[in-house]
Every structure is written in C-alpha cells, then in structure tokens.
Design a protein that fits this description.
Helix content: over 70%
Strand content: under 5%
Shape: elongated
Structural class: mainly alpha
Number of helices: 9
Mean pLDDT: 81
Low-confidence stretches: 122-142
Number of strands: 0
C-alpha cells in the first residue's frame, strides 16, 4: 500500500514525519495517517509523494483511460484543469477516463504528447524542488 512506501522512504532518508509533511504541504498527522494506510493522499499531493519516493508505486496503467486518470492524479489536476490543458470540455475528458469514448485521431496526438511530456518530467522537477537528490547524495557519502 502507498503508506508503506511513504514510511519506508521517510525512514531511508532519515526524515521525521514533520519534515516530510512540510515538504508535501500537509500536517504531520496526515503523514502519520497515510503511513498507517488509514487515509489516502489526495491527487494534489501525488506529484510530490511520487517525487519523494523516486518512483510511481502503482502498477502501470493497462488502458488509455487508466493512463489519463494516472497522469491527472500524478499532476495533481482536477478534471476541469486537465481538460483545459488539453483543450477539451471536462465532460469529454470524464467520458475518456471512464472508457466510454476516446479522442479523435487529431486529439489523440495532442493527448499522447501531453502525457509523454508530463510523465517523464514531473518526477525530476519535484525531486529537484524537494532537494531529495542532494540529501540522497549526502547520505551516500557519509
């Protein structure tokens, strides 16, 4: 479960819950609840959590609709915000995410480009913002 990944990574980095909470922008009690798997992080926190972990703890998406939902959650976007970025109506995106329909060929090219560009870059950008790579290097030298 996600909470197990968060706890292991926090301990591996030698961080306190309050330090992880400050990096993610939540209260230390929230991190405690996540680590116990009592609650789950909201999508808006997922990009930072994945960056902190250094990997996506969920299994790879099996379908186009799952990939859309995963990307939106990892980017911390609402359907409305992601639809705006893709240039489509939010109800259209919702239908795509439910697998009820799919984009036209022209839109599919735009959506795939969006997914590919964001999937690779967001983890590294968050890791740099969090300073995770520097801490890891410092710990490995000691």
């Amino acid at each position: 479960m996600l909470g197990d990944h968060i706890r292991k990574r926090r301990l591996d980095l030698g961080l306190l819950r309050k330090q992880v909470a400050a990096q993610i922008g939540v209260d230390k009690t929230t991190v405690y609840n996540w680590e116990r798997n009592a609650t789950h992080p909201p999508p808006r926190s997922m990009a930072v959590i994945v960056a902190l972990l250094g990997y996506d703890p969920y299994p790879p998406p099996k379908s186009f609709s799952e990939r859309l939902v995963r990307a939106r959650n990892l980017l911390g976007l609402t359907q409305k915000a992601m639809a705006r970025r893709l240039g489509v109506d939010p109800t259209t995106l919702a239908r795509w995410e439910r697998g009820e329909s799919g984009p036209s060929r022209q839109l599919l090219t735009i959506v795939r480009a969006f997914l590919n560009s964001h999937q690779l870059g967001f983890i590294n950008s968050w890791r740099i913002q969090l300073g995770v790579t520097n801490r890891m290097k410092q710990r490995s030298v000691q």
